[in-house]
Write a sequence for this structure.
């Protein structure tokens, strides 16, 4: 079965520091990949998505992600984290005709 | 404002009771979904609907039922709630089913079964 892993359950960074959240998927075919953010007590909001083409995709709130087929990865990055970025981040995998598979999530804490 | 609404926001329920979680979207999306979110497990798909009149089972369908009488509404029913159904439930929708289609999420319902 397809699976999505996010190796880091919880990450803490200082405000202004750079951030990278890891995501790996298990299925080999060309996937559709997504990153969602969930603020406390809220639903999920789409940050960015990858379908094809340029492997570096830009999203909202200054986030970007890079698709690396050789590593089956889709890591999320931000050059300078803001306190408001503290949230839970979910990577999701999709494929034609399939529903989504979500990773377990990574909780981001931001120190002042 | 276009989007997805869920009701109730939260609920405490005695085991054995019947409960329906409501979900309404006004984006005219064909596909709708119900997920449960549990710590460390991410979101798991309970049921989905490709279009009005059709439903399908997701990863964790046992103990839940859904209906899709029209495009906008997709209620989730727990016929006889059990404590393991304590969770946060999210409704989502997308233009079509399938991994290419971005899903839009409601604010969630926090359900506690005692």
């Amino acid at each position: 079965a397809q699976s999505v892993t996010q190796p880091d359950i919880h990450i803490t960074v200082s405000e202004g520091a750079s951030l990278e959240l890891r995501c790996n998927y298990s299925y080999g075919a060309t996937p559709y990949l997504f990153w969602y953010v969930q603020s406390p007590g809220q639903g999920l909001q789409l940050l960015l998505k990858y379908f094809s083409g340029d492997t570096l995709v830009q999203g909202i709130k200054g986030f970007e992600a890079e698709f690396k087929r050789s590593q089956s990865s889709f890591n999320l990055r931000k050059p300078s984290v803001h306190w408001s970025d503290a949230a839970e981040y979910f990577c999701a995998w999709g494929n034609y005709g399939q529903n989504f598979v979500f990773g377990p999530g990574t909780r981001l804490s931001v120190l002042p | 404002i276009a989007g997805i609404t869920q009701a109730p926001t939260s609920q405490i329920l005695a085991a054995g009771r019947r409960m329906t979680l409501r979900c309404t979207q006004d984006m005219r999306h064909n596909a709708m979904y119900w997920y449960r979110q549990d710590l460390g497990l991410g979101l798991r798909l309970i049921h989905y609907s490709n279009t009005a009149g059709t439903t399908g089972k997701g990863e964790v369908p046992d103990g839940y039922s859904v209906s899709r009488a029209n495009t906008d509404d997709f209620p989730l029913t727990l016929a006889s709630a059990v404590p393991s159904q304590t969770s946060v439930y999210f409704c989502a929708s997308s233009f079509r089913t399938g991994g290419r289609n971005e899903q839009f999420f409601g604010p969630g319902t926090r359900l506690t079964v005692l």
